[in-house]
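Z., the sequence and structure:
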Amino acid sequence: MEARLRSWWQKIRKYRVAIGVIAIVLVIVIALIIAGYWFDWTGFNGYNKVTITHIISSTNAGTVTKTEEYQPGRALWDWLQLLIIPAVLVIGGFWLNQIQRSREERITEKQKETEQEISRDNQMETALQEYINKMSELLLDEELCKPTAKEEARKIARVRTLTVLPRLNGRRKGIVLQFLYEAQLINKGEKVVDLTLADLNGASLYFAALAKTDLSGAILGGADLTNAVLCGAILGADLPPGLHPGWGKFSGATFFQADLSGADLKGATGIVTEELEKQAKSLKGATMPDGTIHL
């Protein structure tokens, strides 16, 4: 009820000028009607209609006949009949105009939202392509995927990865991770790009092939790992001291039918072991968050 009253009040405030004009017009009309009853010449109070008839021919030629007929004044119903049609037309026109305006505002707002969404999508696509291009240069010019790659090149690759991920949606985060995997930059035991604190929240890794990768320290809250192949991958690692505890790395992640055989989840946070066992396709040889080995 309170919300409805607030909504009505907002509408009144929005159209207060139009409502004020209508109110002023009504006050003026009512004042004129009341004033009209003060003067007899307006006919509002009723009057005697006098009719004079002159007989020119016949036996009564020259006779003058005077007839008086009382004309009643304007009653309330008369005024209602006189004003109700214009009032209905005015109110109906105003109402239709507001409906049309509201429809146009909704269309405009929807178009604006669509344009903003397209703009954001274009920005994310540009950021992703720029990242892939820059990383490709490092791969070609600095031989980033080889053990002999310079430490500076490794740091640049990590910084670019950590910088671009928060700007992307889940699907594009999955593309970045798959790119790193295909470029052999996150292989277990030969990791080139350190993903500690990498923002992979909500990443779409549906059917992703990430076997024997090192994802330790990456934040994968809400990620979709359905049917992902994570055999032998390292997924667990304690987060750095002082990190806000709300940053659970796997809070809300989906592992439905994911192959986690041999995966190392020790130290992973946000995982409910019982739920993981229900979802995962295979946990054979996996090291669980509590340190146990799943047989």
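The longest helix spans residues 76-141. Helices lie at 2-14, 16-36, 76-141, 151-164, 170-182, 273-279.

Let me know what you think.
H.
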